[in-house]
Amino acid sequence: MAARRFDLVILGTHFAESSMFDVLESVIGQSHCPVVCLQAVPFSHGLGKSSFEAFRSASMALGASLVLNLVELADDAQVRALLEAQIPGLVTRA
Q: Is 3 inside a domain boundary?
């Protein structure tokens, strides 16, 4: 990442062989762009509201600019509206 400039990095919660938190720390350490962490696919064991809030808090503490739970949204139109409302403000602040 250090060799290229990015306007925004989006990280999902699902990683086969690693932790999103490890990737987040690495991205924050190598880049000065905003990072959005999101849950877009439900966990197989479910991630309750309190667990997601803990995930949000940990992500923000590690340097994420925004944490979104797209699973709570009813359809693609709601996801698109949320992303269009949130992302431009992050990119223009970078």
A: no
